[in-house]
Amino acid sequence: VITLPSRIDPHQTSAVVTLHGQLFVRAPFEHSEV
After folding, report:
1. Mind listing the pLDDT tens digit for each residue in 1-34?
2. So which domain of life are we looking at (predicted)?
3. pTM of the full predicted structure?
4. Confidence at residue 33, expressed as pLDDT on a 0 to 100 scale
5. Is residue 25 within 8 Å of residue 13, measured between CB atoms?
6. Total structural domains in the chain?
7. Cα(11)–Cα(27) distance, rounded to whole angstroms?
8. Could you tell me the residue range of the domain that residue 28 belongs to?
């Protein structure tokens, strides 16, 4: 389950689903937590 802040702009957020079923979400976060 992936929960994203409602502040994220759909135009600035790109979600990519790979063939493996993994979901990659790229968003301009101020600080990235790895």
Report:
1. 666 666 656 555 666 666 666 766 666 656 556 6
2. Eukaryota
3. 0.23
4. 61
5. yes
6. 1
7. 10
8. 1-34
